[in-house]
Amino acid sequence: MSWAQSVTQCVQSGGTLASVEDLAESNFLTEHADLYTTKTSGFWIGIHRNVYGQLLWQDNSALDFVNWGEGQPSEGQLDYCMELSALSGYWSILPCSSQKGFICKKLKCNITISISLNLFTGSQKGEAHGHMNMWILLTLVLIILIGMVFIIYFLFKMKTQRETEREVRRSSTVLEYSHVLTERDDENDSANKKEKYEHSIV
């Protein structure tokens, strides 16, 4: 995407093109940008020259740190924009219409910084990627829901099986107890009959 398109994409996602405030942040960006060198050689960052030739960050933060490549910036290129090299991490000036990836920086509610690397050089690719992400997200949600249904079914089946086993054991215990009582009653009846019979003989 061009620098202007990249600015628009970042603003639409609730951020700005990245400002780089110190060497640690520059190293962080370079480390992550290096992963995408097969797709792009550099990323737009939020530094640009205004009409007076001043270098500014898009988010209006102070330009306290710079990481220029050799021979950069060139004074004769006032209307150019800045890229971060995916290989070296150094900054260089390019025509703003050049097609590059871009780095957005968003402030989260808890004031932590979220960096997103965007690699698409055309809006159609961005839309296709967005649709693909949506399908992936929907697929993951569906898989999670199906998994939860199986877990609930499995737990319900185990509970039902335990209750059935408990009922069988209870019935078996009652049956054994009633069998013991019946035997005792039979023995008592036999003893009573025998005693009665003995009394009648005497």
From TrEMBL:
The chain crosses the membrane at residues 134-156. InterPro entries: C-type_lectin-like, C-type_lectin-like/link_sf, C-type_lectin/snaclec_domain, CTDL_fold. SMART domains: CLECT. CDD domains: CLECT (cd00037). It holds the Pfam family Lectin_C. Keywords: Membrane, Transmembrane, Transmembrane helix. Gene3D superfamilies: Mannose-Binding Protein A, subunit A. Residues 1-105 form the C-type lectin domain. The keyword Lyase does not apply. This is MRC1 protein. It comes from Centropus bengalensis.
